[in-house]
Design goal:
two-stranded antiparallel sheet, about 260 residues, 2 strands, globular, mainly alpha
Length: about 260
């Protein structure tokens, strides 16, 4: 366990070292968050409520999704598949540690820093410009924290599965781009899944993608509360278990016959 804590610590330190990149990312998140908020303001111009969201809740949704965007890395991650291409995966697999936890520790270490250097400033900036919806009580805030942690774990488990496909193909980048685009859409990042047509909402809810974005945000907003919030946490935990098992099975199958380019 100490090894993985050290890996997480080193990943956090690396993330902190890129001060200019963190600042540029923060400015980018704020800019696109503002664009998304103005689109919703225009949408709500003719109606006080849509899909169960008030305008204030919808604006909060844009702020919070921008705040957690880099922590859940919905846009993608290719670090693991790059090690397949370079051959570094051979030395990683030969080392005496759990390969899955090796990558998970680094991912979580960097993600926690992204939450603080991007997420917190984004929510503070939003709160100074417009009214926001905040968790109604300590219980709701705690449920959000648990849900966000599960979202980060589900996201990693999904991205691990996408990356491990590189063990079967010479270039998995195209597959990854398609997979991450689908995930970004069905997670509710662009618009809440609640806004989808009924049939598309059903499709989305049969996937793990809402567990990454929509569920933690709706717990924050109070749209999911009490038994509904508990049910959301259970769904996230179930999807996490399923994806971890799939990822580990893919890893075991892929490493039986591995072709390395470069290394």
């Amino acid at each position: 366990m100490r090894l993985y804590l050290e890996l997480a610590k080193k990943a956090a330190q690396r993330q902190l070292a890129y001060r200019q990149a963190n600042l540029a990312g923060l400015m980018t998140n704020l800019f696109f968050g503002a664009l998304r908020a103005y689109v919703l303001i225009a949408l709500y111009g003719a109606r006080p409520q849509s899909g169960g969201y008030t305008l204030t809740a919808a604006i909060t949704y844009t702020g919070l999704t921008q705040a957690i965007l880099r922590a859940v890395q919905i846009f993608g991650w290719q670090d693991l598949m790059k090690t397949v291409r370079t051959g570094d995966i051979v030395s990683d697999l030969a080392k005496p540690f759990d390969y899955y936890l090796f990558w998970l520790a680094q991912d979580l270490g960097a993600d926690v820093i992204r939450l603080f250097v991007r997420g917190v400033p984004i929510m503070l900036a939003y709160s100074m410009i417009t009214p926001l919806v905040w968790p109604s009580d300590v219980g709701a805030a705690l449920a959000f924290v648990i849900s966000l942690l599960l979202a980060m774990l589900v996201s990693f488990a999904w991205r691990f599965c996408v990356n491990i496909v590189a063990l079967w193909t010479t270039d998995a980048l195209g597959f990854a781009r398609l997979a991450y685009t689908v995930g970004m859409f069905f997670s509710g990042f662009l618009v809440p899944v609640t806004f989808f047509p009924a049939w598309l909402k059903t499709v989305a809810n049969w996937t793990w993608f809402p567990s990454i974005i929509e569920m933690p945000v709706e717990i924050w907003l109070g749209i999911l509360s009490g038994p509904a919030a508990l049910n959301a946490l259970i769904q996230q935990a179930v999807w996490l278990t399923v994806l971890v098992v799939i990822g580990r099975l893919m890893l075991a199958a892929g490493t039986r016959k591995l072709v390395i380019q470069g290394g």
